[in-house]
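anyone else get weird line breaks when pasting these?? whatever heres mine. first is seq + tokens for prot A
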Amino acid sequence: MKKILILLLFFFSTQGFTASNTKVKVAIKPDNGDWLKDSIYPITLKEKMRMRYKGSVKFIMGDFDNDGVDDLFVLGTPNIKDLITGETANGKITINVACDVSSGSTSNCYSSKKRRILNIYSMKDNATYEKWNRNKQKWDTVTGFQATDVSDLVVNNNPIEMSAQGIQHILTADFNGDGVLDIFFGDSGVDLWDGKKTKMPGQNDHYYLSQADGTWLESTTTHVSGKGVKKGRGLKNFSHGFTTGDIDNDGDIDIVVTSLEWFGNNGQLLCYVNKGDGHMKVRRCGGEFGWA
């Protein structure tokens, strides 16, 4: 009990708290030990996560279905060779590996389940199910936490060139005010190699809004506008940190993004100002660069 509470507090201190502008009760019920270590035949959830992702794993907990038990949002680079954040023999990332449409190759883009970078698990407490007992080599009937992968509810219809590249940490908040958590994660882009030189063009951040049908839809093209935003392409930036909060005291949740001085709008504080329904208007709100 004490161990899982300390673990969760550590995760929150490094990843940030879930925010919401609605009166949604959120409760954590770690009454059955560390469920990350519980056996999910034939391996544990923690081991599954280690095998699925090769690095840059971030996650946050928040109650998206409002049942009083925190659910799990996981962001990470799939453990597959030659993906967007992979490296070629010369130590650089080639344009075709980075999902550049003009290259004619899209096989390395994050578009399939195998290559998914955002996974969501619905957590239930006091669920009864069969669990493999490694020590006794038999199935036990147990009652406790159970995770259901609901990642198919994540929908992204954006152009391939808007695919995730240099992913940062993940935040959740109720941006559109419907009582369901939405998702935001930044993207710094990657250093691209065209055979002669490298360039850092930056990349758009990623913004998923909850929908009436229970899905989360990537909404950058329809719900982000303002300073530096290209219509239908989002804000290309060298994002390195971000947080949420009601910065203009109007009752909804906004986003503040920090960036390094590298390309375009970088080296500034940029604010995604919520118009009340999840539509974000980007404006410059500071002249300092920042890592986080």
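and prot B, same format (seq, then tokens)
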Amino acid sequence: MAQINYALDGTDNLLMPLPPEKTAAEDMDIYVRFMRHMRCIPTSRRILRILSAIQFTADMLDCSDAHVGKVLVNLGLRAPRKAFPASFLSYADTALKHSGWDVAGPNAALEELRLFWSRYQDDDHDDLSCSHDGAANVQGGASGSTGYPLLDLMMSA
């Protein structure tokens, strides 16, 4: 599957998802709303744009942020950990603790995302077994967390 590469701050790469070929209509709806909202966000920081678009898509389709993130990863989205909601990171970390043969184990797309994260490691995330603050997208219980993921990311810049 071909993917689109974007430079992130000159150091990391970002792989955007491609439209689903033969999947459920829900996957196409998630993809279309996500990509449409990515163009409307008035910020140059791609990490914020991805996080905002995932949360917007989840709100518009009345489903969880983790589900939208999972569908987009299955469609090829590869981005730093900061670009994903805390609920998706919790799901991903739990799945990645299991082997691929376990019932709760990761699928191939999640394994590729783990490899992407290990290749383009964030400064804040040296390993995948970090704890998650329930409401915030800031891991490890960072002080000064507002409970709003986008606000936390903007304040950290």
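btw re prot B: DSSP finds six helices and two strands in the chain. Residues 4-156 form one domain.
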